[in-house]
Protein: F-box/LRR-repeat protein 15-like leucin rich repeat domain-containing protein
Amino acid sequence: MSSISAQGVVERASAELTKRINGLGLRTSKHHVHSLPNLTVLSLSGCSKVTDDGVELIAENLPRLRSLDLSWCSRITDAALEYIACDLNNLEELTLDRCVHITDIGVGYISTMVSLSALFLRWCSQLRDFGLQHLCVMRSLQVLSVAGCPLLTSSGLSSLIQLRHLHELELTNCPGTSRELFDYLREHLPRCLIIE
Structure:
């Protein structure tokens, strides 16, 4: 099977799983999760019925996931991030945009993931500077977005200079930013694209 047709099969399987999860809830989709142990990319963006229990089921049964998108999953909390951090050891990209119940505690769980290279936390309204401190220990992190996070301060954002391997940092619509902060970040992270 060619890589293009194999990718098509995976995309159809992922799309079917997403459709079933959003329509029925994840608990009733347990069979479908078990039938895709080799799945590497899963987007559940906007699946309003996905809960922490559903994420636990995914984390326990899809160990080969490399990319997971849970953006706009309004029921996700810090507990889901604990399941992800404990079980998805191959995860390289995690998208949690607009997951409004995620706090610094959940980000602390995520910070233990050594293979994670891209993390998207756009508009996570409970993320604070303490959560950023957790992220500063992530040596493999290359892409980070905290765009629109209203509680982040200039002090917290300036601590991100500890992420020496960062290639891209998105800070659009962060009230804690300033021209001085952007200059400071660019000075200390010269290889990083800072998106204002």
About this structure: Residues 3-24 form the longest helix (22 residues).
